[in-house]
Amino acid sequence: MGTSVSSNEAGSTARPAREATWGELITRCAKGDSDGLAALYDESSSLVYRVALRFVANPADAEEVTMDVYQQVWRTAERYAGERGTVSAWLVTLARSRALDRVRAKASRTRVEEPLPEFRELRFTGAGPEDATLATQEQRRIRAALSTLPHEQREAVELAFYSGLTHAELADRLQQPLGTVKTRIRSAMMKLREQLGDLAP
Fold first, then answer.
1. DSSP code of 32?
2. Beta carbons within 10 angstroms of residue 88's beta carbon
3. Domain span(s) for CATH 1.10.1740.10 in the chain
4. I need a labelling partner for 44 at 20 to 30 A (CA). Which of 68, 122, 154, 174 fits?
5. At residue 107, does pLDDT exceed 50?
């Protein structure tokens, strides 16, 4: 008569094999094997995503946290030490850390994500020629600063603030994840603030 195996027993048997496989993939990452990273992502990203989602409570943010984790894995794989813990524990720790970083940045991000309302329509109370000249000069500065941005950032900023699209509409127009669009606008705003400090709202 055969002996049945419980799901718990099957899981406890599968976990060591999974950890061994993931450990081998980490080793490949440490050697610069991008296929190893892709395989690790396929195997483990659902775990990382679930952990991230618990903290950020937003699917788009959780996706970005997940990508951040695997970028960090790629950069630091050679530092992973199996004797200190399993690969899954390491990934969970990375996911938790990156997710908490994102949560802590939320408050300041709200301010940064509304970057250009005053840049879009510079208005001056004076009506004299000097005021008009000043407005023209500042508009030129803004256009020059925008021209220094990478194409994808400039495109997102111009669509958002010159066409009046919301972030969600932008994501649909650009066929990009919402989190990616927000990141592009946030990065663009940081660069613009460096160049246009005295004009920044």
1. T
2. 15
3. 13-109
4. 174
5. no
Tell me the percentage of the chain whose pLDDT exceeds 70: 71
2, 130, 135 from 48: Cα distances, Å: 38, 58, 49
Mean pLDDT for the stretch of residues 180-194: 80
- Rounded-to-integer distance, Cα 85 and Cα 82, Å: 5
Q: What residue ranges of the chain are covered by domains with CATH 1.10.10.10?
A: 113-195
Residue 31 DSSP code? T
Mean pLDDT, residues 138-153 taken together: 78
Selected from 1.10.645.10, 1.10.1740.10, 3.20.20.100, 3.50.80.10, the CATH number assigned to the domain covering 13-109 reads 1.10.1740.10
Q: Which helix (H) or strand (E) holds 201?
A: none
Residue with tokens 């790629």, as numbered in its chain = 74
Return the amino acid letter for 75: R
Task: Write down the pLDDT at residue 27.
Answer: 93
The CA-based diameter of the chain, rounded to the nearest angstrom, is 100
pTM score over 0.70 = no
Helix (H) / strand (E) element for 152: namely helix 151-162
Please determine, looking at this structure, whether the domain spanning 113-195 carries the CATH number 1.10.10.10: yes
Residues whose CB falls within 8 Å of the CB of residue 114, separated by 6 or more in sequence, listed in order: none
Amino acid at 198: D
Residue 183 contacts residue 64 (beta carbons within 8 Å)? yes
